[in-house]
Structure formats: structure tokens, C-alpha cells
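Consider the following assembly input.
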Amino acid sequence: MTNQARILVVDDEPQLTRVLRTGLKSRGYDVRAAADGLAGFEAFNDWHPDLVITDLAMPNVDGLELCRRLRAVSQVPIIVLSAKGEEKTKVEALDLGADDYVTKPFGIDELLARIRASLRRANAPAATEAMQTTLHSGDFHVDLDTRQITVRGKSIHLTPKEFDLLVYFIKHSGKVLTHRTLLAALWGGNYVEQNEYLRVFVGNLRKKIETDAASPRYILTEPWIGYRFDSGEP
Amino acid sequence: MQRSVLDQKWAGYVVAAVSVGALTLLLKIVGAHINAATVSLALLLNVLFIATRWGSLPALLASIVAMLCFNFFFLPPFSTFTIAATDNWIALLAFLITAVTAGQLSARAKRRAEEAEAGRHEIERLYAELRDAFERASHAEALRQSEKLKSALLDAVTHDLRTPLTSIKASVTTLLDEVRGRVDGEPPAGLDAESRVEMMEVIDEESDRLSRFINGLIELARIEAGELQLRRSWGAVDEIISAALSRAESITRNHRVELEVAKELPGVRVDERAVSEVVYTLVENAAKYSPKGSTIRITARRARDELIEMGVEDEGPGIQIDLRERVFDKFFRATRDGDVRSTQPAGTGMGLAIAKGLVEAHEGRIWIESGRNGKGTRVQFTLPTGDGDVIEERRYSAAAVETQ
């Protein structure tokens, strides 16, 4: 059985690209590698991969610049390889449009899980969004017209902002969302530095949707970065 | 400053009364042939003195006492307080005005002086405070700089430890997955024999890389702490070079190695292991950063009387002039930090730093030049032959013979 999906690995560390190429190929993915952002962007234009895995610190064009260039031309899922201590760059990459990150050193399982999630999101039908009146994801049912939400079959009452926040989470289920991204999406560009706003709303939302707000299973905190929503979809 | 008894407020009044009394007595004793004007001037002088020293109130007392004494002893009718003539009233008035005016003036001058003193103290205090603040700030700045350097070094070290670790972890987990079988939602890893070997090769190579890095760190720390113990002995330059080359055999397999060693080079008194390490590092760098099939040239010649100059030259892309000093800094890598495009794995950034430490421990010098025809890189270093030491030693043994 093969996945057929095409993955471009961009890293200046030849040993790691060697491992990833072999490891991902053994899972049926079609893999190509590039040694820096410039070569990576060329390979992307040439080959049109389904997913890009990129390191952040690279000579010539680095990972951030690659994210920027890719987002200018494509919505291809991007997974960033980062190291502890690179939080700032990591957040920047996510703000620039990267979908997810894996912290070095990582097990191949973790990377494979992120690849699967990113590919699934990318392949989910999104074309009908404008017409869509209901959302369904895992434990959540949303009627966008009547603005009613049920969690695990139970109807819950949300304020308008909480409703918007939850719908945004559901629409971006599984993806790491930075504080900045959420604030800009919900409150607009003037509020991107107001992390405490977000914390309050997330706190309230957790009280209403989580079974145990102290150890949430839907709205997961990504320390220093933002949140990741898990709808409970198997 | 301690306050004397004379500085006390009451002392002014006592001195005022006593001094006027004493002066009057003195004037009385000196005789009646002194006229009233002289007496009054003398007493006024006394009032002035009191005023400047103790201020207007003691001076006022002095002036009243002086006026009374003047009136009683020197103005007719004598021995009464009656004042007959109008001009004597004027004299009394003069005493009073002098006392008050002089008192005020002296009080003001005193206040000014005190203010000036206080101002001086304030300036001194501000200056000290400013100096302290400045010292604290520069200390904090120095600390900040050293912290910055430390964190940069830490970043470099963690990066070099984590990079091989990442490849090892990814390889091992890939192999483990295959051994353990199916992972959730994922087809089983179909590793063929070749891929398995490749994964294990990566693990092997990357473990070696970690080990090399850690050895380098230890060597570097030893050099920096000045704990490098050179075991000097007489050796031949060509032997040192061939020891390094035989160690580097596997990495120079794809290059042509040329030797240009001058004939009849004097022996050198060095730590052979250390110098061989320097040559090995330079050859390794040359092989790493120059194309396959190109030539690596190793040279050795006598530069001056007591100096041997050795060099390793490659036909690679060369090192920019502005980076030629920095490549000797620890953890600096021209390939990464200088943005030179390369598909070769970056080094540890320690090789040249260690080489420099070893050369300098031998009182030698190491530097980088362009190779032949301005292309490639040539790393040159000098070593003292140790002839000076020989003379010293001979002298010493001669002296030892003489004393026997």
C-alpha cells in the first residue's frame, strides 16, 4: 500500500535528509530533498509536492523566507522542523503560514502523525464553505444559521465572540494557531498583542465545552505559541 | 567638624560683654590722654568683631554695653549714665547702627558660605551617585555582554549536539517502527535491506560525530584553561606530516595529495602528537571543502634561522578575506556562519580553533592566505625549530660538566 503523496524535505543537514528520505519512502511517500530554501523553492515550483517539511536555520534562503515565498504562491501544508530555543522563529513561521511544527530531536512517528494530519486537513473538502450552514467535526455540531452548537450531543450556550472563536477552532481543527493568528482573526489587526483577551475567552470557552476545564482535551495549549484544537475526531 | 565652645550661641553674648568690659578697662588704664573719638573707634571695632564672629544679637549686646561704658567712663559728666551733649547721642546711635548692620552682613555672608558649602556637598553627593550608577551600569553591561557571549556559545554547542542526535533519533525510531510492526493509521514501514543499512550507517556516523564534537570541546577547554601539557621532544617534520597523512588516508582517498618538503630541514623540538593533529585538521578541512579529484598540497620549508613554515593548500572555493581571522574563532564556521554555499556537512567549528591553540602553545603563528594563482585556501603556520633551546641545553650541560 502506498500513500502516493509527494513530500519535499528542505534541510541543510544531509544526514537528516538522508534519514527522512529513506524513512518516509518506506511509508510509501514520494520524497525529494533540497539543501536550502532557494533549492527548496525551485524544487517546489518544479515538482508541486503535496507537503513541505522545512528546517528553519539554513544558508541562503532560510525556513522563514521559504514559508513566505511558498505562501505567496500556494496553500501547500508546511511542517517546520525547529529546535527548543527557537520559539520566536517558530511562532514567526506559523504566523507566516506554516501549518505545524516538530521539535528536534523527534521520533519518526511524531513526524508521520503531523504529516497525516496536515495532509488530511489539506484534502478535506473546503469548496462549499460559502454555502455551508452546518459544521460537523468530532464531538461538535454547529448550525451556522441559528448559531447553535452541540457538544457530545448537548446544546451549549455561547456569547457571540465565544461562538466565533469555537467556529474558528473547529474550522482549523488540528492546526497550531498562534495567539497572533487567533487575535487577528477574531478581533482584527489592532488586537494582535492582546494575549490576555484571548486567554479570558479560551478560559470561558473551556468551562463550557470541556468536561474538565483544568485538563482540557479539545482546546490544547501550545506553550508560548498558541492553541491547537482537537475536535475529538477519531 | 566639631563645634568648639566658642561656636555656641551663648558664647557670643559672654564674649561680647567680657570683651567690651576688658577693652574699657584697658582704655581706662592706658590713661585719660586718649580722646573720646579713639575710644569710640576702638569700641566700634570690638562691636564689629563680635558681629562678624557671632552675628547681630551678640553684637547688639556688645554695642549697648560699649555705649554704656563709653558714656559712663569717657563722656562727661563722667561716672554717670546721663548724656549731656547731642553728639554723644549720635555716637550711641552709631554704635547701634554699626552693630546691627555688621551683624546682618556677617550673618548673610555666613549663610552664603553655608549655602555654598551645602551646594558643594550636594554636587559631591550627586557626583558620587552618578559615578556609582555609571559603575553599576558598566558592570551590568559587561555582564550582559558576557552573558550574550555565553548564550551564543551555548546555542552553538546545543546545535552541534542536537543535529546528530536528531538524525540518530529519526533513524532509530524508523528502525524500531519496522521491528514493532504496524503503527496506527500508517502502513507498515517497508524498509529494504539497503535502507536498513543506511539507517544504521547514519546512526554510526552521527555517533562518531557526537563523539568527535565532545572530544573537541574537551581539547578546547584544556587549551583555554592553559592546561595544555606539551610533551616536547626532538622530531622530524616529514615524520610528523606522514603520521598525519596516514591518519587522514580515508578522507583524502578522493584527492591527490602532494608533498613539498624542503630537504635537510632541521629537527624540531615540539609535541609531535599536537603538531600532527594540526596537520591532520588542516588536511581534513582541505578535503572537506574542495572538490573531489583536486589537489591538496602540503608544504614545509625553513623560513628563517629558527623558524619552520608549514602549510596545507587546497583548490576549493577559498575563504573570503574578511573571514580569514574569524575562522579561528571557536564555533565559527565559514560554511554556515559565512553563508558559503556547500553541500558538505558543516564542521564542528572547533578544528581551526584547536589548531590555533596548539600552534600558539608552541610559540608559533597560524594564518590563512589564498592558494596558488589566488585560488583555494592555504593555511600556513610556523614552528620554532628549538635551536635556541639546544644552545641553552648545551650551555647547561657544559656548565654541569665544569662543576663536576
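Residues 142 and 167 of chain A are 8 Å apart (CA to CA). Ask yourself how this observation constrains the way the partners meet.
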